[in-house]
């Protein structure tokens, strides 16, 4: 039997695609309407977009004009992903505009809504990575910071692997083992000890205990990324199968044509 994660039949996916995972409420069905989507677009365009651009692009460049060691590091190391952030925000804007057009049905609408959120998620991660990377280098040095980045990448790989295993177990009633959380703890301890030793050996610039302590906060952005990856990957598979077996799920969840199409279906 084919146990590939994208090859499940309708009966198998019914354990993954549930009303709880889809959050099927009267309010969510309203999101298929143009008015609802356009309101969200205006808020994003006038508030979140400019705010993200200022934090990720404008702030590091403005700080660079200040005459302090921390400002020097922020302008030198906090601008690495600025070109990618700009491109990602443009992609997000284009995808969001395309999302305003009517969708085939509610299933396609929520799948595409997730697609709209992904560039903003990527931009957010890159923005905070840039800022915390610069702060980390200022406090513990580049070498020690690279050790923490390796630890963070381990978080992301473990989270991705575990969520895929969880989905496969759910689909096919398997009992495949996930990577235990204790490995995150072990790697974190090793990384913190290693970064501290390297910092004490090689970091000669003294920016104060506060900056030194805050340097380790770069792990926070990786923890956030790992958690969000779990959410996005799980939701992506739920939405994929919801779209693939759309007719069956409309009937199963008793979704009316008004909710499903955003209007009464023409007979």
Report on the structure:
- This protein has 267 residues and is mostly helical.
- The longest helix has 35 residues, at 106-140.
- It has helices spanning 10-13, 19-22, 26-29, 34-63, 69-77, 82-99, 106-140, 142-172, 181-202, 209-214, 218-244, 246-252, 257-261.
- Helix content is 76%, strand content 0%.
SSE topology:
Blueprint: H1 10-13, H2 19-22, H3 26-29, H4 34-63, H5 69-77, H6 82-99, H7 106-140, H8 142-172, H9 181-202, H10 209-214, H11 218-244, H12 246-252, H13 257-261
Number of helices: 13
Would you tell me the overall average pLDDT? 87
The helix-and-strand class reads: mainly alpha
- General shape: flat
Number of strands: 0
The radius of gyration computed from the alpha-carbon positions, rounded to a whole number of angstroms, is: 22 Å
User: What is the H/E order?
Assistant: HHHHHHHHHHHHH
Regions with pLDDT < 50 over 5+ consecutive residues?
Answer: none
Q: How large is the share of residues in beta strands?
A: under 5%
Q: How can the largest sheet be summarized? A: none
Helix content: over 70%
**Euclidean distance between termini CA atoms:** 40 Å
Quick recap of the structure?
By secondary structure, the chain is mainly α. It has helices at 10-13, 19-22, 26-29, 34-63, 69-77, 82-99, 106-140, 142-172, 181-202, 209-214, 218-244, 246-252, 257-261.
